[in-house]
What does this fold into?
Amino acid sequence: MDRPQINPMLKSALEFGPILAFFVAYLWLKDEVFILGGTAYDGFIVVTAGFIPVFLVCMAALWKLTGHLSRMQIVTAVLIVVFGGLSVWLNDERFFKLKPTLIYLLFGTALGIGLLRGESWLQAVMEGLMPLQDEGWMILTRRIMLFFFGLALLNEVIWRTMSTEAWVYFKTFGLTASIFVFFIFQGGLFKRYALDEEG
It folds into this structure.
C-alpha cells in the first residue's frame, strides 16, 4: 500500500526543525541559569527539557501525515526521551551528549549483525530509495557500518574534550555535513551497482 505523500519541505521541517530550534535556543540561553524548585539549571539543561516535547510533537505530526516512522526515527525518539530525560532529571548534560554515540553504535552494530548473517539489513530499509544490485548493497552496508562507528567515536572525542558549545555546533552542523559528504563519495558505488531499469 502506498504511503501518503507530504510536501518535502514540510517533511524536512519536521525532521530537522527540532535540531535547529535546539541550536537557536541554546545560543540564546547558554549563559543563563534558572532556579527551579531550589535547584540551579544551566541553559543547556533547560533547552534539552524543551527539545524533548518539541521533537516528539514533530515525530507525531510526521507519523500522522505519512502513516509511517522508520525504525531509526523510533529508536532515536526513545533514546532522546531516555537520555534527555536523565540529563534533566539528574541535572547532568553528559547523558544527552552521550545519546549520539549510542545511536550510531546501535545502528552500526545492527548492520554488522546483518552482515555476519550474509544480509544487508540496510537494503531492507532503503531498497525503494536506492535501486542497487545485491553486491552493491553489501558494500554500502559495510561502509555505512564503519561510518557509524566512526561517528560514534568522533562524538565521544568531541564531547569529552571540547566545550559544550563546540559539541552543540558539531551536533547541529558537523554530523549532518558528515553524512552529506559520505553519501557524495558513494557516487561511484551507486553508478557501478545501479540496477538496469531495462533489465
Summary: The chain is about 75% helix and 5% strand. The first helix runs from residue 8 to 29. Helices lie at 8-29, 43-66, 71-90, 94-116, 121-126, 134-161, 164-184, 187-193.
